[in-house]
Amino acid sequence: MGTLSKDKDIYYTIAKAETAELKVKSSKFIASATPVPSKELALEFLNNIKTRYHDASHNCFAYRIGKEGLDYRLSDDGEPSGTGGKPILFTVNKYKISDVIVVVTRYFGGKKLGVAGLARAYANAADDVLKICKIVPVYITTPVKIQCIYEDLDVIKKILSEKAVSFEEKYHDSIEIVAHVLSSNTDSFVSAIIANTKGRAGAEKLKM
Does 2 reside within a domain? Predict the structure, then answer.
């Protein structure tokens, strides 16, 4: 399927669910897209769409999960082979996103579109919904626990601002911080914390 991002620890998905509608020769195509971090959630979304549009002719779909997009599935849902799921997946791949499912629901309008026309309609419907989606990064991180004194907080905050994706703080007699760091940068992050506090702060990777 190909790598979605040149960065080892970043890939992209969509921010939230969106819907778009397309009409082609009396047939109505409703494209629904949503971010899903697992195939279980993808199938749950698919079932919800099938329930919502229970009277539709077809609910074709494609989903892609994970950084490399190797966990994927597609379905023509009774349409001629290769005319539904494949064009949808091709469109998802075009946007270089993952952790996403696109379902295109078709209400048949009485006029046949032909194999090429049908495939084009499904691809265009998927494109219509994805082009209104906001694309956001997914970070592959490792949590690092930091224990430090108040005197070192400014130094540590500077390192956090440069190297951490996010972090949470707990203030007691000392300070406990859990930083979420890009996995490939974890060792250099730990070294920076220890070196810049002259060993006063502790930093250790937490088990996932």
Answer: no
Can you tell me whether residue 52 is helix, strand or coil?
Answer: helix
Using the Cα atoms of residue 79, residue 81, residue 85 and residue 89 in order, give the sign of their dihedral: negative
Q: What angle do CA 97, 51, 38 make, to 5 degrees?
A: 30
Residue 180 in contact with residue 167, Cβ under 8 Å?
Answer: yes
pTM of the entire structure?
0.82
Q: Tens digit of pLDDT for each residue in 115-153?
A: 999 999 999 999 999 999 999 999 999 999 999 999 999
What's the CA angle centered on 177, arms 174 and 180, to 5 degrees?
Answer: 170
Considering its fold, how many domains does the chain have in total? 2
CATH number where 59 lies? 3.30.230.30
The residue from 80, 115, 137 where one domain ends is 137
What are the pLDDT digits (tens) for 85-110?
999 999 999 999 999 999 999 998 87
pLDDT of residue 111: 80
To the nearest 10 degrees (0 to 180), the angle between helices 153-163 and 186-196 is 160
**Helical (H) or strand (E) element with 143:** strand 141-148
CB 185 within 8 A of CB 163: yes
